[in-house]
Amino acid sequence: xSRPSYILKTSCPDAVGxxxxxxxxxxxxxxxxxxxxxxxxxxxxKSFVRVEFEDDAxxxxxxxxxxxxxxxxxxxxxxxxxxxxxxxxxxxxxxxVSRQSHCLNALLHRWADGHLPIDITGIVSNHDxxxxxxEWYKLxxxxxxxxxxxxxxxxxxxxxxxxxxxxxLLVLARYMQILSPRxxxxxxxxxxxxxxxxxxxxxxxxxxxxxxxxxxxxxGATAHYVTTELDxxxxxxxxxxxxxxxxxxxxxERLGQDVESSVLNRAVRWHAEHRVFFNGNxxxxxxx
Length: 288
What we know:
alpha/beta, 7-stranded mixed beta sheet, 4-stranded antiparallel beta sheet, 13 strands
């Protein structure tokens, strides 16, 4: 009978013997290490470790025992922040969207095919456009329009829905509304946004037309955590595609939407697999 698999995330001030202490602790338990990633940031002098391992602990009590033992024998010694998660447990995700469907559709397709380790708790939108897509995937669709002067009430309903569904991550799959500072604080580290990113950057309406008019040679997308500073949160993933003068605005938009979709999917995957660590305003992603 195969043993359960777990993921250990840990970070602390860098010191000699961190990896040895982590691996030694697991070896003493008879755990089998199946993936180990380690990174030291020279500037912050912080050490980041992610380990996947198999262990005989088969229930919540067994997991609690691992946590308590690790805290006593390793974490306290090195001043570590750490988490331990069952590998098979899927992250509960609420998805917010406005009118555009490309990021939502790509996310749902990969989720339905079992390629994303998440459970989607529902889809929420300030428009009714994506109801049929949600129904196709047999997912709850929550239409929460924004009435004049009542945006705060609509946002409060989204936050309530997030809690009621037991969601652990809010994915803004082209949700074209800015979250309030209160919402950003409540969802700190638990909300991911996707947006186009160009060199130079284009803000406001019709960004692909602006890019066309400037003759850009690269278009791209950025997935990042939501913070009170608009589009300034820790970056999880980015992607770019080369373009040229023969491409029309519609071509740029089509290609840009493909990049946005793939970048968002990778960011959600890495978050759900507990591969992302915060290092100030930077995100460290231990992909391997």
